[in-house]
Batch of 2 targets.
Target 1
Amino acid sequence: MIDLNVLVRSGALALRMLMRSRVRLVLTVLGIATASFLFTAERSVRDGVREATQASAQETRLIVYRANRFCPFTSRVPEAYVDEIARIDGVASVAPMQIAVSNCRASLDVIVFRGVRAIDAERILAKRLRIKEGSLADFLARGDGALVGSALAERRNLRVGDRFNSAGVTVTVAGIADADGPQDRNACYVQLPFLQSALGGIIGGEVTQFEVEVSDPSELQAVAAAIDRRFANDRAPTSTRSERAFAARAAEDIVTISRFAGLLAYGALAAIFALVANAIVLSLEGRAREFAILQSIGFRAPSIAWMILVEAAGLSLCGALIGAGTAQLVLTFGHFGLGAEGVLVEFRPSLAGLTTSMLASLLVGVAAGFVPAILASRRGIAEGTRLA
Amino acid sequence: MIHDHAKSTSVANHAWIRARKLRKVYRKALRDGVQEIVPLAALDLEIARGDFVSLMGPSGSGKTTLLNLLAGIDAATSGELWIGDHNLVHMRRDALAAWRAKEVGIIFQSYNLVPVLTAFENVELPLLLSPLGRRERTERAMEALTTVGLADRAGHFPSQLSGGQEQRVAIARAIVARPPLLLADEPTGDLDRESAELVLQLLDQLNEREKMTIVMVTHDPRAAARARTRLFLEKGELARREEAVP
Ligand SMILES: Nc1ncnc2c1ncn2[C@@H]1O[C@H](COP(=O)(O)OP(=O)(O)O)[C@@H](O)[C@H]1O
Ligand SMILES: [Mg+2]
């Protein structure tokens, strides 16, 4: 019944006719591109928030924070807790960390200093950071040496040997490292004593948090509870969460905003639907005779519906390609990272994001063309050819 | 099968196109009931293969309606309409489309062409439905444009053509798939005398050389004079039939 040849030829014909209607094409495509840009950007925000904050069954990292404190400036726990924590069952390693941020509130381009002991740098960081430039030895050799995460290095355009200052701390880049998690990719690791003295020594013997690795991911919650129980009646009670749960709490505002932005994504899809439907319906008004003539030539009604659907698909794909493509470029070169209370959420481009936007636009566009296509193909041919 | 039966009883000793009690009723919903318009009441008509027929009659007498029924782009309410061994009245929309693609070329009074397609692309349209490859399609479309004397306008868009040229492109498109039947609804109605003459000459030529059967609706007695058979419609019925003396 369906002639593939005719399908291909009438599809090509529809696209050719679409390309020839410049004004209609350009205006609609620009609208769709804008909506698709928004949609893609929102996807990236959502994926970034997910990556940073969504709990997973494979997590092995806990953050031990001072109970009821929410900002790195106010969380203070005795460094000496490190030995107590190491003794708790299920703890594979523990590293005290001093955190200093250029800005505690949610903002773009935050620098998060993470002060670590030399021994932890060798035992723990060496395993999870992939050093691309410089070396761990250089980092340990310099007092003010910094190991900069790759995303931060790109955002700030930092190279090994560069000196930079933030939050009153001046460091020299000794290495640049890639990593799997957004926190490491955006961290600026420095040596713990250096950071403590740079911050004025007021917090000697105290750190912001401990980073604990557990040996079995299924024990994560149990170990966290055990840690908090141990210090519940001590002078600095703790609150221990998985790294991502911790990030979700710290970046609560960002999570909320991203949830709201999710509505924008649906709005963007609705806009694409409306734009395609509008472009198709309006053009069909003026082209009823054209389609009637095609049918008088022998084009079948389903071919007419097909041509209109191809047109809808062409419009939405064209717009999506431009909008989503631009969004990917902006995300690639913008290196966006939103920080809040020392936790970073990255907005990165991704192939999955690009394909999702393209597919979503295509589906919504075709859906928008569906009803007009069916209606137009069912119109009486004689009525159409009688129109002047 | 109905068709075989019909064939054996009618094809042998009847004309190629036969209408029997052909009726078309338009129903218009009004506030106080339904208004029925009957452009064709109970039309009987025969047209021989190879004939050149002109169809005349006052405005509103059902000429366009009849032509649309012959083209299979409108459906009769009742009666029979045979073209060869097809009774169009009983054919479904899809089957009619397939039949049209092979058997009929249609020319309307004006605005025949798709404005965003060039003359060549317009003429090529019917061939897109055939199994012909690109090269053959190009050859055939150019041949048809040559027949109507517009090969040099192949790349022009309809807006770049005169009314007469547009109409000739429409003729090229109507004949490109080499259908045996050509239907024209006031093809010269919008044209000046000279352009009309060119179009009529073309139709003459297609009838004589290509043996195409032509049914042409016209208001113009001069145009009607070209036809071998002249039919006059009045109030939905065939009022008069004149055969030109050979
Ligand atoms: N779609 C329609 N709905 C209702 N009436 C129609 C429709 N099409 C044509 N008619 C009516 O049918 C009659 C015959 O029309 P038509 O065949 O176009 O006449 P002609 O071509 O001879 O001028 C006219 O009265 C016209 O108004
Ligand atoms: Mg008419």
Target 2
Amino acid sequence: MSVIAPPAPARLDGRPAGRPAAKACAVNPLKISPALGGALAFLGIDRALPLLHGSQGCTAFALVLLVRHFREAIPLQTTAMSELNTILGGADNLEQAVATLRERASPRLIGLCSTALTETRDEDIRGDLRALMLRHPEWQDLAVVYAPTPDFAGSLEVGWASAVQAMIDALVDEGPRPRHRRQVNLLPASHMTPADVEAVREMIEAFDLSAVVLPDLSGSLDGHVPDDYVATTLGGTRVEDIAGMGAAQITLAVGEHMRGAAEALQRRTGVPFRVLERLTGLQAVDTFVETLMAISGRPAPESVRRERSRLVDAMLDGHGAFTGRSVAVAAEPDLLVSITRFLNELGCRIAAAVTSMPAASLAGVPGTAVVGDLDDLHRLTEAAGGADLVIANAHGQATADAVGAPLFRLGFPVFDRLGAGHRVSVGYRGTRDLLFDIGNLLIAGRTVPTARGHPREASDHDHLHAPAALGCS
Amino acid sequence: MPDRQIAAAFDEPDCAVNRAKPAAERQLGCAAAALAPGAAAGGCAFDGAKIALQPITDAAHLVHGPIACDGNSWDSRNTGSSGPQLYRTGFTTDLSEIDIIQGGERRLARALRQVAESHRPAAIFVYVTCVPALIGDDVAAVCEAAADQLGLPVIPVDVPGFVGSKNLGNKLAGRVLLDRVVGTREPADPSPTDINLIGEYNVAGELWQVRPLLDRLGVRVRAAITGDARYHDVATAHRARLSMVVCSKAMVAFARGLHDRYGIPYFEGSFYGIGETSAALRQIALGLAAAGGPADLPARAEALIAEAEAQARARLSPYRARLTGRRVLLYTGGVKSWSVVAALQEMGLTVVGTSVRKSTEEDKDRARALLGDDAALFGQIPARELYGRLAAGEADLLMSGGRTQFVALKTRTPWLDINQERHHAYAGYDGAVALAAEVDAALHHPVWHQVRRPAPWDGAGASACR
Ligand code: SF4
């Protein structure tokens, strides 16, 4: 069956940056601003406060979206640029903002993300910041890290990567250091949930290794109830631990978009790196585990073997639900790669694959990835004859309704379901959970022919007695 | 061009805050109160304008700017439509670096064509955000040319976020409606009982709680500005006989504009709570009768009020018994700082404090009168202090917007949404009962017993083992 054959060589649709065809206007945008991605990365640092350098509205929108997704109070501030400041330059606003935040919240780190507004004028933010730090020797207890995240270049993924790279450049001690044989660095992908990060760390620790995770949302946005109010993040990577990342044996970066940050770390410290395309799917997790075995010099522990066996069993039990079913997906580039490859490995057909921006990694998507919006997802899905399932962020509901298929929520934002930050879809166990969740939606939505030729919803009865309906004929 | 409009938006004779300022300061307007970097927390002018105009449901709302403005905000509000769904579609020019270098006008022109051809909107509103304003795109010219070519109204809304707050954006949107939309069309069926509801956004369907009451009086909403609105209805708003400004200070200027240009009288009111709803119906009836409407309208309104109030009070009484004396902290602002207080007091609740952010002196007076205590009025509370007050048990319930939701919940205090993103409608008599039911459910929820239990290692059991 062609649908479960190995994916054909993919391409980025041959088109240059921007939108498919001659579309002048995004309709139901998929893209999320890079500044939000940068802020999210800074939220994974202990006692941190992200600060958007721009007008207050950009911060308000990003804040509302983050709060609704994570269901947490999120510390996020603005330099509150007015029209006049924008024309005259933002250095004064920056100084005031940092001084105010330092006084009120005493953060250990302020993560400064630019916006379109401050980057359009070509402000020398880096220079301004350097001058400020010189003028304020009393700010020595504070790290201010600047990540360029203009809204007109890229999407959430880009902003996240930019912030991680900026932290490496600013905070990691330079030069080679004595290596700790058992330390690794982990650079998670922007689409990994706090629970994903925790799951990966646990896998690393199962090999008797310890990981410095940059950034570590599992410490800060994991939804704990603190004993007292804090105006910064509470939990996450400690600035001191970032400084010591040069002592690791290797850096593991998840997702192609983290390659730049891993390279920066290598340049700074000589620590070699490995980019793992994804951590979802049997083969992908096997690769990860092989890497951990090689690094640690240990065999895989019993717990990991057991989880692999359970995943294999789930794939044997469940693959029928996926066979020949068609799925339409919209996601940030590296998440798109991860989920479409996983679906393809289970026998699904990718009816449409839409992403927010051009990226080299999209070559990994089975079929053709199109840079576009949710309107494109709808259009392409219709052109492909519909789909059995739509996978997108919460905004995808309208598309799913139009296509007449259920929506599986994945990516950012997911504001209309509980537990967006707690879902695990990496590692053997996470892959198995994902397989069950998606498989159940596909089973619930499948139709079987009836005597009169009208399709009807399948029932459990069909499941037991009509295996042909699963497409295994 | 933007400067002039903004100055006009601040020319606010009815605004008590502004009236109290010396002339020179008054000219600077409220925008002169510059925001504090590192301590500001609010939406921008673009946000406010979009809130005010988006409920025009058969129009397309095109956001001209890079992705931050629309990409992070579209599809986030819960204002209902009884018909067209086009207003929910997020359109943005999503400007790239090249667009910004070359100027965004050509992309905008093409975007307008695309939207017009593929969606056939009744009109297109074009929101000018910070970057195109900064690089000087002549959006007005592009819109004018497009309107000619495409044969539909294309209306620039000049609201870059850096000019000011959400509130300013509301006002600027009102201005745009006055200047560009209202009066461009004559109604086919004008009637002496037509009214405008101004500042009623139909959040969670609140307009639909009010409409049946008006229907029973034979009063027709010519235009709700803007809630479940159609472009052409808004265009005929100048033929209404009376305007009611619903819980909004920002839109008073719009109502006065309708008065000054078309002689339509207006009043300010609220549909929160039984008493306020009755007062509003009474004023509508009297106002219309005075403006040449049916002379028996006030009497019919009284009959309706008597009946509806009796019913509502009967339905409220079981809740009163359960709610009397429970303490609520209200963290909203503007008109709601008192209008919601009145509604809460009707159900027996004790309001221990209300935020008077963005409230006028008049609003504050009314809040003071209801609460009988100055100490209960406060401005912005930093999240840390709010946390402290709730943790100390100052209130049994916090009513606020989504942003402080998780501050309250972390202290294990019941919380209820009172702002724009909520999913429950609280307007009119039915809304008053619905609000009581929600408050009751929040306060008496079984979860509070669970989540306030000490952990096994903290509780009595733990010490017994030691
Ligand atoms: S402040 Fe300016 S750039 Fe930011 S969201 Fe508002 S209009 Fe857009």
